Automatic annotation (TrEMBL):
It comes from Pararge aegeria aegeria. Residues 125-304 form the PiggyBac transposable element-derived protein domain. It comes from the Eukaryota. InterPro entries: PGBD. It holds the Pfam family DDE_Tnp_1_7. This is Jg1004 protein. PANTHER family: PIGGYBAC TRANSPOSABLE ELEMENT-DERIVED PROTEIN 4 (PTHR46599).
Length: 305
């Protein structure tokens, strides 16, 4: 007989047989449950019983003598007049050796005669005070020097051979364009001189040509490479930072409250002291430490390198 064709009717199983099978299963499960309960009770009895020691009761003996008192209370009563009720304490000037506090008497704010000269001045005059013409003149000297040094090492077909010496006035226009590019951002520098109506800008072509801007950007220098200290990582801009710090302190006196803060200048170029900070909006950049005073004036800055 094929197994797949078997049916209950082939075994002649009645309803009474099914009830007997159910009762047998119930009795087996009940026996298993009792055996489990019995084994658990035996395991519990075999475990060691830990007796918690009884807490000792402290007995306080009170003194019968009314004249006895706590020695601490007696000492406090005798040495603190306010508790004994004899006199009342008053604030008095300290006596004896006291640390001397030096009063802050330095002049703060814009120093004279700059304060009176710039009382109603425009923003450009304040900028010229912190970044005077002698800084632009020094940049012009170093830029012209580097262009001459670079001209000897480039190919004859390079446009560096068409270099014309720059001046402080031209460098002012150059840095003005850089500030403008920080406000009006385009994907590439060449697009500021583009004639496409999507990118067309009217201001940069009136300042200087694109070729002149690019060649100035290539030769821009702040120090002489031949005399710079190779051990100093920021020797290329060290003279500029020192001059700015000198002017910051020269023209403005910090207030009594100062703080040291840090800021990150966004930069993704290749430089050894580039920092990464995942908590900043601009994660890559150069870190600056600044000594600041009220109302946010930078007295000194230092580049972390």
């Amino acid at each position: 007989m094929d197994i797949e064709t078997l049916d209950l009717e082939d075994f002649n199983i009645t309803q009474e047989h099914l009830r007997d099978i159910d009762l047998l299963e119930a009795s087996i499960f009940e026996k298993i449950r009792r055996d489990c309960d019995l084994s658990e009770s035996q395991d519990t009895d075999s475990e060691e019983v830990i007796h918690v020691p009884r807490k000792r009761r402290r007995i306080f003996i009170t003194s019968d003598s009314e004249t006895e008192c706590d020695p601490v209370e007696k000492f406090v009563t005798e040495n603190i007049p306010s508790l004994s009720g004899s006199t009342s304490q008053k604030w008095v000037e300290p006596k004896g050796h006291q640390p001397s506090v030096i009063a802050f008497t330095e002049p703060t704010g814009m120093k004279e005669p700059y304060a009176s000269q710039l009382r109603n001045a425009a923003q450009g005059e304040y900028f010229s005070l912190m970044v005077p013409d002698n800084i632009f003149e020094e940049i012009a000297v170093q830029t012209n020097l580097f262009a001459e040094q670079r001209e000897r090492s480039v190919k004859p077909s390079s446009r560096s051979h068409k270099w014309k010496p720059t001046t402080k006035d031209e460098l002012k226009r150059f840095f003005g364009l850089i500030l403008y590019m920080g406000l009006v951002k385009l994907p590439k520098i060449c697009l500021y001189w583009s004639t496409d109506r999507v990118y067309r800008q009217t201001f940069p072509p009136t300042v200087m040509s694109r070729n002149r801007f690019e060649i100035l950007l290539q030769n821009l220098h702040f120090t002489n490479n031949e005399t710079a200290d190779p051990k100093d990582r920021i020797c290329k801009i060290r003279p500029l930072i020192d001059k700015l710090n000198e002017n910051f302190v020269k023209h403005y006196g910090p207030k009594e409250d100062v703080c040291v803060d840090e800021t990150q200048v966004p930069f993704r170029g290749r430089i050894i002291f580039r920092q990464y900070n995942k908590s900043k909006r601009h994660k890559y950049g150069m870190k600056l430490f600044k000594l600041c005073t009220i109302p946010g004036y930078t007295c000194k800055l230092q580049l972390y390198a």
